[in-house]
Amino acid sequence: MVxxxxxxxxxxxxxxxxxxxxxxxxxxxxxxxxxDKYTSGVRFSWTxxxxxxxxxxxxxxxxxxxTIPVHxxxxxxxxxxxxxxxxxxxxxxxxxxxxxxxxxLGEDDAFITGDGVGKPQGFxxxxxxxxxxxxxxxYVISGTNGAVSWGLSGTAATTVGTQGITGMEAALxxxxxxxxxxxxxxxxxxxxxxxxxxxxxxxWQTADAWPSTANGMxxxxxxxxxxxxxxxxxxxxxxxxxxxxxxxxxxxADRVGLSVEVLRELRALKDEVIIxxxxxxxxxxxxxxxxxxxxxxxx
Length: 299
Fold this sequence. Notes:
alpha/beta
């Protein structure tokens, strides 16, 4: 069979995936946004070996919840009976493979940019994706409309390391670095490789920017691995084209795996057969603090 090779679905292999028996999954959540050091407002006091005059209740964790709805996706391929009867190879197996490929890539697209209406909510659509990191949100600006940047290199000590790729890395709390990776499409990585300093030297060092025997055929950016996902947003003004962090914060709830049925009766009078595929899955970014996004803009 002469055909192209499909692109890579990269979110599911890096996300937290589980099976559910319900159409709505609910998780308890500690609501705490004060800083990235503690998980709640619970603190202790040093007593200096003297009994406290009064015992007051510690600040309680504020209980909240996160819900992930499960959505249904379907697809169908219509074939004539003659094609199925006269095929020179396993046509049904081939169609099943194409359906599986379509579902895998389609859900990957939704995990990134899905609006959450009848489909999973993509991590670039999360409410905090529209909030700046400095205000407790997810995005760091590139400082240039429609383009990536390495990072602000001005003389003001308060702004160095707050923008671009270096600003994203700085914004990610250190406890999430162990499983952190970069996520972008290939064209965005190409733009990053083209960034140079005043002497036209690549800011992204050649030894790390491309796979080679020296780096074990695994390119890296600031020491973190790269994931190429062609469904990541293309570069445009204010686009969220680069993600950095632990994708394990994105939850995928599998309700019913991909099923393929051959329906012969529905279009029997037309001498046609329907190959029908169906899947039920939900997805949502639950730990938004594990992921930072590069907003290709100035504010």
